[in-house]
Amino acid sequence: MPIKERMHGGNIYELAEKNNLPPEDIVDFSSSVSPLGVPAKVMQAVRDSLEIITHYPDPACTAFCRIAAAEHGVGVENILAGNGAAELIYLIVHMIKPGCVLIPIPTFSEYEYAVNSIGAKIRHVKIQPRDNQFSISVENFCDLIPGSDLAFICNPNNPTGTLLGLNDLQHIVKVGKANGCFIVIDEAYLDFVENGNKYSMIEKISCNDNLIVLKSLTKVYSLPGLRIGYAIGTKNLINMMRNLRDPWSVNALAQVAGAAALKEADFRLRLQRYVWKERQFLYDELRQIIGLHPYYPTANFILVNCRQTGITSRRWQEKLAQSGLLVRDCSSFNGMGPYFMRIAVRSRAENMQLIEAMRDFLAAERR
Question: Roughly what angle, to the nearest 10 degrees, separates helices 235-244 and 84-96?
Fold first, then answer.
């Protein structure tokens, strides 16, 4: 069976080459990272630490893990840093060696790629559109936990924005524990949710030895090129993961950047307020474009159904790319179909540039 090509947002280099554009001229709406860029203090910390590349990185990521543990009120022994959250997803799968894995669809594709890497069986639960949002039946999800060894939940979900409350999450973990199923909750986008801490399961780690929470620094601090994320779990689970991992998977500069980023509470608050304001603006503007149906956002991206325009998301992506605007064609998401695109929230000027380009393209298509 041929291996399905991986598709993710943020590939500005391919778009630049295809459309003969300098990469720096591309406005990337396909990758849901901070529109404010890297915090100045984080960038300075990296510059000040360039000389450390002559040494091996700390395999325990000690300084970073101490700061992350303090940030979340857990012990250092409950934190494991990784080369982005993606490395940790694969690490978890190879640690548990599940026979069957439960995955909602559509969701982040690396869960399924990781499971496929060991040839395990996959069960799917469909996240369904309901008026202005996508929702998942927690009851249906829990019904499929018996017989599953591992389950993934992205909260809020990429690309649908589906957000499960704490009671639902605790119920899923409880059912998982009763049935010998590990639950992984990926909170990569939770910092963009208003009152996001109320949805986090980190405080439930100590009493649930079947629960692992994933966190990412990519989105909030614009660090996709350095790759750093971390897992939070019981001491036993973290030790098991650590023993399986490449000792130097997190490079020295990523550790420095990550430690500096977690200290930037003021930046994070400023970013959140900025994104919430621009998110509402972009959502309202998209709603006014006839034929587009944006779903109400919870994170820093908006899922848009373009079926009523009669134009596929791939065509939208290709046409907007000619103007140096990259949106995420969601047709590669399992269970999504050819008429959905994901648009990241960026600055007011960039958001307006996109809206105007979309209106112009649609008007030209209808002539």
Answer: 100
* Residue 134 three-state SS: strand
Reference 324, options 25, 33, 14; nearest CA is 25
* DSSP per-residue string spanning 225-292: TT--EEEE--HHHHHHHHHHS-TT-S-HHHHHHHHHHHT-HHHHHHHHHHHHHHHHHHHHHHHTSTT-
Nearest CA-CA partner of 73 in 222, 225, 170, 206: 206
pLDDT tens-digit series, residues 202-259: 999 999 999 999 999 999 999 999 999 999 999 999 999 999 998 999 999 999 999 9
Q: How many CB atoms lie within 10 A of CB 5?
A: 6
Q: How far apart are the C-alpha atoms of 147 and 101, rounded to whole Å? A: 9
User: Which helix H or strand E contains 65, and what residues bound it?
Assistant: helix 62-72
Report how far residue 9's alpha carbon sits from residue 12's, in angstroms, rounded to the nearest whole number. 9
Q: Which amino acid is at 126?
A: K
- Determine if the pTM surpasses 0.85: yes
Going by their DSSP bridges, the two strands 301-305 and 340-344 should be labelled as: antiparallel
Contact, 32 vs 189, CB < 8 A? yes
| CA dihedral of residues 21, 23, 27, 33 (deg, nearest 10) | 160
Q: Residue with structure tokens 């650590």?
A: 242
Give CA–CA dist 1/32, Å, rounded. 32
Q: Which residues contact 79 (CB under 8 A, 6 or more apart)?
A: 65, 68, 69, 72, 230, 231, 232, 238
pLDDT digits (tens, 9 = 90+) for 155-202: 999 999 999 999 999 999 999 999 999 999 999 999 999 999 999 999
Place of tokens 């971390």: 230
Residue at token pair 């996508």: 134
Q: Give the containing element (helix H, strand E) for 301.
A: strand 301-305
Q: In which residue are the tokens 């030895």 written? A: 209
